[in-house]
Amino acid sequence: MLACESRVAIIKLLKQGPRKVTEIAQLLEMSQPAVSQNLKVLKAANLVADEKDGYWVNYSLNPIQLLEIRRELEGVCRCKNVECVQTLTGYQQELEAELAWVKQQLAELAQAAVA
């Protein structure tokens, strides 16, 4: 559903506030049928709501649905970040152990040079 760049562009535009199909089409340099088709998909996914304004229809984002999707995506991202942090922590522990060994070797060499 978000794989289409046009839909992402529409979502970004609707973040600024409700818009009519004609406005979206003009601002994104798309045909009105293309905008309508993309809005239909976004509406089916409950990401966009529509509201009649006389003859026109205003489209706006559904903030609750977007928040739910964001939470899900953050969960996925956090998982990967946790794995990265664990890997980096392991590397850090290895480097600290190696540094401690090098410091010990230098201290022993310094003592041998004084003796």
Name the shape in a single word. rod-shaped
Strand order of the largest sheet: 1-3-2
CATH topology of the largest domain: Arc Repressor Mutant, subunit A
Largest sheet: 3 strands, antiparallel
Question: Could you describe the 3D structure shown?
Answer:
With 115 residues, the chain is of the alpha+beta class. It has two domains: 5-61, Winged helix-like DNA-binding domain superfamily/Winged helix DNA-binding domain (Arc Repressor Mutant, subunit A), CATH 1.10.10; 64-115. Helix content is 72%, strand content 12%. The chain has a three-stranded antiparallel β-sheet. A hairpin with a 2-residue loop joins strand 2 and strand 3 (56-61). Helix 2 packs across helix 3. The model has no long low-confidence stretch (mean pLDDT 84).
Short descriptors:
115 residues; alpha+beta; Arc Repressor Mutant, subunit A; rod-shaped
Task: Draw up the topology in text.
Layout lengths: L4 H10 L4 E2 H8 L3 H13 L3 E6 L2 E6 L1 H52 L1
Antiparallel strand pairs: 1-3, 2-3
Overview in brief:
With 115 residues, this protein is an alpha+beta fold. It has two domains: 5-61, Arc Repressor Mutant, subunit A (Orthogonal Bundle), CATH 1.10.10.10; 64-115.
